[in-house]
Amino acid sequence: MNVSNLGAFFPIFAEKNDWAGEKKLGDDDVALIISFFSISQVIFSPFISKIKNRIGTKNTILLGLTLTMGSTMGLGYLAIIKQSSKFKYISLALRFVQGAGDIII
Fold first, then answer.
1. Which of 11, 30, 40, 71 has the smallest number of CB atoms closer than 10 Å to its CB?
2. Is residue 21 part of a domain?
């Protein structure tokens, strides 16, 4: 679900946003931001059982929900950033955290 919610509106947002005189995000930038979710899931999936064994299943679910909720809120607040370079790197980090939180759940 988190992959499709950003994939539906993000390319349109990146194309129509005024980046305060900077160059717009290209299609490759948009694809990289969207794909970071899946990349983080591939990276974190081998460690999930160790995390669950160490802190417990219920606490792991709470951790995953907290990471997913926080990164989703952060992605919502990205709309106020007017510099394309800051937007790109912050959204990459938030998508990575969102993917990690989603795989933990």
1. 11
2. no
58 lies in which domain range?
2-9+26-104
With a CB cutoff of 8 Å and minimum separation 6, the contacts of 104 are 44, 48, 51, 60, 61, 63, 64, 67
Domain-located, residue 14: no
pLDDT of residue 59: 92
Query: What pLDDT, in 10s, does the model give residues 53-103?
Result: 899 989 999 999 999 899 888 888 887 888 888 888 998 999 899 888 888
pTM score:
0.80
Asked if 41 and 103 touch (Cβ cutoff 8 Å), the reply is yes
pLDDT of residue 51: 87
Overall domain count for the chain? 1
Alpha-carbon 28 to chain mean position:
16
Asked whether the beta carbons of 97 and 70 are under 8 A apart, the reply is yes
Residue 15 belongs to a domain = no
Apex CA 91: angle with CA 85 and CA 96, to 5°?
135
